[in-house]
Request: fold
Amino acid sequence: METGNLVIMTESPQLVNRARDWIARARSFHYQQLNRHRRVRRFGKTRLTFTTGQAITNWSAFFVAGSTGSAGLPDWAVLGVLLGGFLGGKFLFPVPVSSIASRRGPADVVSKSAMELDSMTPEEIQVYENNMVLKHRLKDPGGLGTAQALQRQRELSCAAEETAGVVTGSLTGLSLVDTRAFSAAAAQHERLKGRWLAYEVDPHLQFDFPAMSDAAFPATAAMIRAMREAEQAKSEGHPANYQSAAAAFGKALTAAEAAAGVPRK
Reply:
């Protein structure tokens, strides 16, 4: 008997820890869903709002509940299915906090100019559009300029990805302003690489300034490290970091040329 009590006491903390871990994971998942953009819809002319996921979940629960009732199961089972569908929809597909339909969302939303839209990410533009539709009960958001802003962003991001040689889709989450900044950093990066490559392929420059091709030379080694860091920053797709890395590469290249005796132009 004492052995049985010992086993129960030993397993109890483990069960408690597992339950706490499960609850923590559930809360983390729900928090992620709250901060994920999803379109919020209004039921007719009422103040009732819902997400597509909630509508599907509730409708599925209603269908299952109807089948359960037809099968002769008790009323409490039918009510349980309906309640489970309602709460499940609220948990899995909640109204995001970015929506004015959320109690924790913005209290108001104002019109944006084309310039302001270009400084917003695609997700922020979609949030803005949905909030304006909800606030003004718009049937057609075409007059907001959001579709045009998203199109401008898509076209520029595709061109920037192709020019910079980065993975397709890596820049689609950036605003138009940030995409332009990334493109400018990529252009600077390419110019600097071409400038350094001349010391590698031009026989005259190789003979006149051998230190520029010598990785053992401290200034050249520092320049090579800066060049690699710029490549890494480009692959990560953060415009500000990429601009800083490209600028650091330029300074390191200038320092290496000065240390190798390259005349200043």
